[in-house]
Hints:
Layout: H1 12-55, H2 59-73, H3 80-88, H4 94-111, H5 131-149, E1 152-156, H6 163-168, E2 174-179, H7 181-194, E3 201-205, H8 213-219, E4 228-232, H9 241-254, E5 260-266, H10 268-272, H11 277-288, H12 303-313, E6 316-323, E7 334-341
Parallel strand pairs: 1-2, 1-4, 2-3, 4-5
Antiparallel strand pairs: 5-7, 6-7
Helix pairs in contact: 1-4, 2-3, 3-7
Bound molecules: S-adenosylmethionine (SAM).
Amino acid sequence: xxxxxxxxxxxxxxxxxxxxxxxxxxxxxxxxxxxxxxxxxxxxxxxxxxxxxxxxxxxxxxxxxxxxxxxxxxxxxxxxxxxxxxxxxxxxxxxxxxxxxxxxxxxxxxxxxxxxxxxxxxxxxxxxxxxxxxxxxxxxxxxxxxxxxxxxxxxxxxxxxxxxxxxxxxxxxxxxxxxxxxxxxxxxxxxxxxxxxxxxxxxxxxxxxxxxxxxxxxxxxxxxxxxxxxxxxxxxxxxxxxxxxxxxxxxxxxxxxxxxxxxxxxxxxxxxxxxxxxxxxxxxxxxxxxxxxxxxxxxxxxxxxxxxxxxxxxxxxxxxxxxxxxxxxxxxxxxxxxxxxxxxxxxxxxxxxxxxxx
Length: 358
Ligand SMILES: C[S@@+](CC[C@H](N)C(=O)[O-])C[C@H]1O[C@@H](n2cnc3c(N)ncnc32)[C@H](O)[C@@H]1O
């Protein structure tokens, strides 16, 4: 038997010196970009804030698109489709994003400088800043596995996510994407301009806090007798608790054996902003942009148990649970959960030891 070699960590002093040296190399590049960034910020703000309001586009969906763009250029998740989309997208400036992130991209490529945004920690080691990047990879994995197992894929609150283009083109699976009218309309127009194929996807405009998305989904051809994946990424936090519950109950009602619901939950401390300064800032900004965060789960003592109890009320049972930051033993803030229709009694999971604050 061969012994596994473990890599010795670099002594702290060398790590500090290395970080200092890389930061010193990074600063001049950042300085060169300042004039571009000034123009970029104005362009980005005009398109992201003003144009999005004029066109009735979800600001949170634009923010989610940013992380796909960052992931492409910071090489944590190559995504040429999202980049091609952004170039034609009326509510974001490709140049604006470059002017802000360019120094980081260049420094990373030239000498391996990485800020939190460009880091991809191991599963369980996530921080708040690295969560959006890692989240995309978990949903990619879920989608990749489901695409050959399922007959239908439903993505409510899809925003500008192009995960369907990434995994389902040419596959024997029906895809339904749902979102509010303005957001879907701009998405389809931008896809056409960017030359991104989408003819196998059925788009369903709906505001599911006011109307029945189930009715619309059935009218659009969803088959209740066939296996489906419901992919609900970063949507529940924008809805009231009773709307989240009702939506999940309805998804459970449409699940035949083998179907799956994949979604994420944030903690109530994150949603209220109590978790940290960064969460507070983001929560306030989303409120100002007219998309306040509303729903979180109390994850303080036993995140898995709390999510399990919530899903149980909706007729669902956990099959996979990914708790971000778990290995860092910080206060739980985010998880991705895969579940199936609950057809029998569920098993309780042990409680976690006390977490320490972030
Ligand atoms: C943070 S974005 C996530 C988008 C996408 N799932 C992603 O990961 O890129 C939240 C999405 O939920 C949609 N949404 C929020 N409330 C909604 C509602 N009441 N009806 C339909 N869609 C809604 C927004 O329009 C937006 O596209």
